[in-house]
Amino acid sequence: MNQKRLELRKQYWPTVPDDLLWVRHGKKGFITIPRTMPLVLSLLDEMSKSKPLSGAYLALWCRTYDDCMVTITNPSYLAFESGFTGQRAVQTWMGRMKKLQELGFIMVEPGPAGPYSHVLLINPYIVIRKLKDHLPAPKFNALIGRASEIGADDLIQKPTIAA
């Protein structure tokens, strides 16, 4: 499939060299995120109406590796990356972190940088599946549709067969 997409790309943009593109293989500075991340972020903001969580959540994802853990040494950097500035930036960010923890998207352990020194990102599909009854059906169904389209079956709850 990758070869077919590469050939198609070369058909559409034959003069664009690879070094002009951010090709993941062989380069540093990449993370792996769910292809459904835009829908996940939208659902996060939906769960916290007037206090968007998406910036804080995406900033965490952008700092993780495949171990799903983030060690925070300077909360003000994360607050800034999350889109918060000013005197209350860290306090605002900490409020978003608390909400992410309450919803189950992250687990935290305290350390030298405060209560959010160590953060573990939980599979967002599993968390969203648990919160399904509190989510708007159109957005949840859009997420299910996209997950199905890309073959992400950890969002789809397996039916249980009664014995």
Give an overview of the whole structure.
The chain is 45% helix and 10% strand. With 163 residues, it is mostly helical. It has a single domain (36-150), classed as Arc Repressor Mutant, subunit A, CATH 1.10.10. A 3-stranded antiparallel sheet has the order 1-3-2, covered by helices on one side. A hairpin with a 2-residue loop joins strand 2 (106-111) and strand 3. The protein starts with a helix and ends in a 13-residue tail after the last helix.
Lay out the secondary structure:
Elements: H1 2-12, H2 37-47, H3 54-61, E1 69-71, H4 75-81, H5 89-103, E2 106-111, E3 114-121, H6 124-130, H7 137-150
Antiparallel strand pairs: 1-3, 2-3
Helix pairs in contact: 2-3, 2-7, 4-5
Secondary-structure-derived class: mainly alpha
Strand fraction equals 5-15%
The CATH class turns out to be: Mainly Alpha
Number of distinct helices: 7
* Residue runs with pLDDT of under 50 for 5 or more positions: none
Sketch the topology as an H/E string, one letter per element: HHHEHHEEHH
Characteristic key phrases:
mainly alpha, Arc Repressor Mutant, subunit A, 3-stranded antiparallel beta sheet
Compact overview of the structure:
By secondary structure, the chain is mainly α.
